[in-house]
Amino acid sequence: MSVVPTNLAGMGSFLDAPLAKLLGRGAAALDKAFGYRTNEDLLRHLPRRYEDPATPTDLSGLRLGENVAVMARVAAASARPIQGRGLTLFTARVTDDVRSLTLTFFLKRQWTVDWYQNAFRQGRMGLFTGTVEAYRGKLQLVHPAVLWVGRDEQDQEAAFIEAGKPTPVYPATASLTSPKIAGAIQTLLGALGSDELPDPLPPRLLHQRGLPSLTHAFHLVHHPAADAEWRLARDRFRFEEAYVLQVALARRRRELAAVPAVARPRAEGPGSLLARFDAALPFTLTQAQRQVGEKIAELLALPTPMNQLLQGDVGSGKTVVALRAALQVVAAGGQVALLAPTEVLAAQHCQTIRNLLGPLGEEGLLATGGDGIGLRLLTGSLTPKAKAAVLADMATGRAGLVVGTHALLQEAVAFHDLGLVVVDEQHRFGVEQRDALRSRADVAPHLLVMTATPIPRTVAMTVFGDLGVLVLGQAPPGRSPVSTVWVNPGEHPSWLSRVWERVAEEVAAGHRAFVVCPAIEPGQVEEGTDLIDDETPGEWGGVEEGALAFPLPGTPPPAPRRPPVSVAETLDKLAATPCLQGVKLAALHGRLPAEVKDRTMAAFAAGQIDVLVATTVIEVGIDIPAATALVVLDADRFGLSQLHQLRGRVGRGEAAGVCLLVSEAAAGSVAASRLEAMVATTDGFQLAEVDLENRHEGDILGAAQSGNRSALRLLRVVKDAGLIGEARVAAEALVAEDPTLAGYPALAAAVERVVGEREDFLERG
Ligand code: ADP
Ligand code: MG
User: Fold this and answer.
1) pLDDT score for 528
2) Do domains 54-164 and 489-664 have the same CATH topology?
């Protein structure tokens, strides 16, 4: 044992010490396979599962197929080459003086043969562990694990106990096998002994929850005497993960609350902007809109920045809520920026808002003393002159409400007094962007992030922990139901023609339809499309825990998947479909120039185009009440949240909507279960939960498409919801008591690490 640290500081350096110090040359393989450099990296490589212990038995109790550990003496050993295979067959006969058993090894290299021959000396006592097999009517163990034991009873007893423990099975690679990893970890544990490591979890908390210390947990998880031990350790690591993340978030909330903001109190009275707006609305606000609006009004009136996430299903009426917040801020002298994810949506939003505001949208109240708020649209498709004019109005304050994309928040764009930022569709506006926004001035603007992606509470607590959550639960009255059908042309080829007939019928009835494809052209998937490939399950997806990581020899490789259907092919195909003759078709996707997109959308809205063959660019916000039919091709390639968003594009008017999901997914597959969920429910929250059960929370939010992992490794946001909630309460208490974590250096270090990883992950948002 080379490391015998005596104090905590020394133990801290044990965790940070390079692996090579204890493992020598073996460290390189661990670096290559997993990127592990330090003792801590390797100690946190937790087993994927545990193999049941072998049954200790003697040679009289052998049963075929049983995993056994037998104590016996070597009676004889021999080696002979296997013709033409380049292998040596090494067999040993072991005995308990009465019965005997054959051990068989297939060896590749001469030096291993020598080594075996030397090891299996006659009379030597060993514990042999393996599965009992039969060969030519005789029982044998093939490649058993071998543990040599001494003559004395105690030694043999200890070996039996060891064999009766669960064996960790580690995530491994072809060359760095689980037993090799286990060996390396045992070396570290031997050096560590029982010295206590600096623990991110405060002792008080360990005590309260009955959890083992870090040192103890490493021993329990890597070398358990029984299942209960590794379970206890696993509980500890799960709680640690939740706790460290929640401490990071609690600190973040504290920091955010410490930045000053300008209070924008509500102007009361019948003549106020808000009162005039409400009076002119063509509908009455729902109770949900009123309540959420009330809460936002209160938060805007405080001198600390509002940071709220407004969740409301598609069509729940978020725009009006945002507008009312905007009016409060403008009336109090501030400006408002409203960000949409794309230029198409920004333009459409601006039009919707202009209609809703009526005369209030016009003259600039702020700069000119006029009556309206000065609504402006700033997009890349403006002429340089028009753009300069908008920028000037923003700088002077003449523009009260500016609609645009993220470009609005660029360095060069100056507001006179930015009081509120509204972000429509959060999942393209991650933590980094939120931070960039907040750090723009000494005074932070208020922030309202709106999303139609239903986010279960635990995801909100982990990924959006810096935002408060408001939910717009109740939809405005008078929406039409959308019926959903899964059409499988693989089983019924004629059904696809029925789909196009149905589209033709909708058009004949004066309605419009969307046909959505994953790709723009063959092989060119639309940006932001949450493309799913069930054939290549990710780290968390598809493969059952403990399933074979490598295909068995002889398993055929999975057939390559057909590339996803594209807008280009579909447009050609529909143009040639008899029942669609005379129907006006057009394409819409992210590669088109902004003005073409705008023109196409306008023509579709005006009814000059009947069927829009599009990518997911129509996913968010597009509001065309006359659109009643949605056809999604290769529907199983989309995530549930995305399908739900797409479905929200129809049924926005008086006529009932229909959603036809076209997919050849095989019955019983994961893809089929997604489609079935879509057919079964229109409740976005329920769909989000289904999605979460099958996938990782980062995938749901569209942020982990390139395989980037989130800060959550051991936790599943649905299953561990209770644990995450408890960790949050504990974290808040600790941060309130010691905001800088000065008294908790190990915790502070763990938080630092998680913040770094989290930001890597979330900046992709
Ligand atoms: P989303 O939450 O998806 O952004 P919108 O704000 O676009 O929803 O609202 C959907 C539709 O419902 C719009 O046409 C909007 O004018 C309308 N709407 C909003 N609030 C109400 C209400 N209280 N009563 C009736 N219709 C409403
Ligand atoms: Mg909207």
Assistant:
1) 65
2) no
